[in-house]
Specification:
Layout (H helix, E strand, L loop, with lengths): L4 E10 L2 E11 L4 E6 L5 H9 L6 E6 L2 E2 L5 H9 L1 E4 L11 H12 L4 H14 L15 H13 L5 E5 L7 H18 L2 E5 L3 H7 L2 E6 L2 E6 L1 H5 L4 H8 L28
The chain binds adenosine-5'-triphosphate and magnesium ion (MG).
């Protein structure tokens, strides 16, 4: 079966700094993938390449068989319509109410009437456990509520794919669990394919069908939680223990070949 998201031989450097080096990842329909890794290892850069917000130096991403890097504006827009992105720290519009935030894309990108948008916003807020919060201002929300409003906004256009960038960072353990359950509910109710970037091992083990670990720009493991847990790789075992001692914090080795720093050079099939 063709994967919904296929990241193929993807490399990305910023100047001399190699962030992603020959990354390969395939996500199947309905699958939930967690991507973990230290701060600054390129997790957000990976998501931005999937969305076509950044171009890789080499390699490509295909979404439902369409190569993101080959698309013109209209093609890219079509692909992005299939993807709901939940940004790191929610990234809501501060000047708008919850209802305006969640309904924003519906108003802008669909011919839906005001009444239809009101109904859809209500439906999305109910799915994330925030029924009746339409009128609240962004400034009146707690961190956990903001994340959930971000989720409601991401599912408004009924995407087939949801990307979550650190949905639980900065939240207490109970709210972290609540958010994990909301992600699982969305997965089961909507049947969506998800990639979740997270630092939280507990939620990764709860929500993921497979866990990938990024280290020095490479995916060093991508496997079901039970297998990940017993993977003897010293970096994985240190990450699981949360120990300061070990290879996890080591500097990456120097690049094997001179990196081409000209961006937008893309080798696609
Ligand atoms: N547009 C950019 N221009 C230059 N460097 C960038 C750009 N975007 C990201 N980087 C660099 O790429 C590296 C990876 O960044 P990224 O945001 O993907 O990290 P991350 O794994 O998401 O970290 P965190 O867990 O802290 O969010 C960092 O060193 C960052 O400074
Ligand atoms: Mg990040």
């Amino acid at each position: 079966m063709e994967p919904v998201i296929d990241v193929v031989n993807l490399s990305k450097a910023f100047g001399p700094k190699v962030v992603l080096s020959n990354v390969n990842l395939s996500v199947q329909e309905g699958e939930s993938l967690a991507v973990m890794g230290g701060s600054g290892t390129g997790k957000t850069v990976l998501l931005r390449n999937i969305m076509g917000l950044l171009n890789p130096d080499t390699g490509y991403v295909s979404v439902e068989g369409k190569v993101v890097q080959k698309q013109d504006r209209a093609g890219l827009f079509e692909i992005r319509q299939k993807i709901g992105m939940c940004f790191q720290m929610a990234a809501l519009f501060d000047s708008m109410s919850v209802e305006e935030n969640v309904g924003f894309a519906l108003k802008r990108h669909t011919p839906m009437t005001k009444a239809e948008i009101t109904d859809r916003v209500d439906e999305c807020l109910t799915m994330v456990g925030l029924k009746g919060c339409q009128r609240l201002r962004t400034s009146e929300l707690s961190g956990g509520m903001k994340r959930r409003v971000g989720f409601a906004r991401a599912i408004a256009l009924k995407p087939k794919i949801l990307l979550f960038d650190e949905p639980t960072t900065g939240l207490d353990p109970v709210m972290t669990d609540v958010i994990g359950r909301v992600i699982l509910d969305l997965k089961h109710e909507l049947g969506v394919t998800t990639i979740t970037i997270t630092h939280d091992l507990k939620s990764a083990f709860e929500i993921a069908d497979r866990i990938a670990l990024l280290f020095h720009g490479e995916i060093i493991a991508c496997q079901p939680p039970a297998e990940f847990k017993v993977n003897p790789h010293p970096v994985i075992q240190q990450f699981l223990r949360g120990d300061a001692e070990g290879p996890f914090l080591s500097d990456p080795p120097p690049p094997k070949r001179s990196m081409n720093t000209v961006s937008h050079q893309v080798s696609v099939p």
